[in-house]
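Hey, quick one: can you model this chain's 3D structure?
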Amino acid sequence: MQPSPWQRGPAEILEAALHMLRGQPSSSNRLTFILLDLAAEAVFRTYLTLPDDLVDSAISYKERKMASRGSFHNLVAATRSGAGERLSHVDLPEIEYFHSMRNTLYHYAGGITVGTDDVSRYASSVLQLLHELLGLDLRDEAPLDQEELRRVGASVKALDAAIQSLRHHTKLVIEKAEPGLLMPSVIHGFELLSDDSGVQNLHRQLRSYAELMEQAVVHPHAKRWLLELVEPYLEFASDTAIANARFLFALCRDPVNIYLLYIGAFLLPEGNIDRGYLYSSQDISIVEDEDEHILGLYSKAKDLLRWVKEGTARVSPEILRVFSDQIDMYVDRVNELAARLSAWTMPEGG
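Sure thing. Here's the predicted structure for all 350 residues.
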């Protein structure tokens, strides 16, 4: 919902401060704090100058208008008298204290700054003030406090560690089941396959893929299935078959994708998309889109980790709070899969 004209000025100042707080280093705290103080002053002055039909005030418009021309403390005193119980959730003494800090920052700038915790607290107070006095709720934009930041940081580290653990145990399983897929020459072949150079080279990629599978995969059922995931003859290939080939070659950028595709089809099939559904004429990209498949779980966990690492400074804290819960969920699921792989043993007879 767009802010009303009288809400817009204070909101724009406050949003500028919140943007700086989210995306700038702590060296910008001084300027952010001053902006927050300007926003608080704008909220008070706007409230006091609004006509009677827009505010519920215990003092007259004339009294409010006169007070609006006074000092910051006059603004607070008149607002306290007029708004009464509406300010029960606003810590006015704290706002006045922060204003006195702002005066020090403004007039004695050399070498003086302010801590991030104080900036965050002032932001939360001004957001509440805007909501109570002008009816505009931007509290979802409130910056994360230090405890929340620590929690998000810990969750991100935990997900990173879980993904690394999953990669490690995936390679250990493949070492037992199909050690040829770990050979440096095969991994280099995967790298070459993942270089998509256009339709004219698709023939070469198909031949290279077939040669890699023939060279690396020992178990005949698995080798046949992996070969049948792509249509070897382009002249007979459907659009879906060509898209599948390109998808499979793109997976080769990270060999762990291929390992998990194999493991989901033959070694830990429970809960995964049945391998009988996956063949060249069906859309096999579903294995990456669905996090019920172990490859999809791995891919989505990696995407989430990358998104949070790259986007922390650009997204709203409310979105980051939601994703923090999602990160914790993926940490549990990825660790559970890593534990299953860790416990896997080669069946007797191979």
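One thing worth noting: The mean pLDDT is 83.
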